[in-house]
Amino acid sequence: MTRRRVVFACTVLLLAVGISPAMAHQWHGWHWGHGGHWRVTHGAIYASENRIAFLEADPEIDDGYKAPIITRARADILRLRATLHPARWRWASPCCYGRRPIHIR
Q1: Rounded to whole angstroms, how far apart are CA atoms 12 and 10?
Q2: pTM score > 0.85 for this model?
Q3: How many domains does the structure of the chain reveal?
Q4: Could you report the per-residue pLDDT of 55-67, keeping only the tens digit for each?
């Protein structure tokens, strides 16, 4: 009976260790408050910024053609950033402004 408990406990431990890395991405997103909306919005911002960079770097494209596209993409980026919640950083140490000042004689 004791041997079965040990084997069962080892099996559960091995399954937990094996499953936890696979679920780490989902848990990390839930833990920090990022959901599907954040990921989709971040991906759209990234894609728009890349499109702007490629248009600005290509000298073969006429400026009259790419200027409205870049302006519209920048406006979309601002609109998308406005939909995200402000960042709530969790620091491991307190801010330096919370310390007493150091006086040197």
Answers
A1: 5
A2: no
A3: 1
A4: 999 999 999 999 9
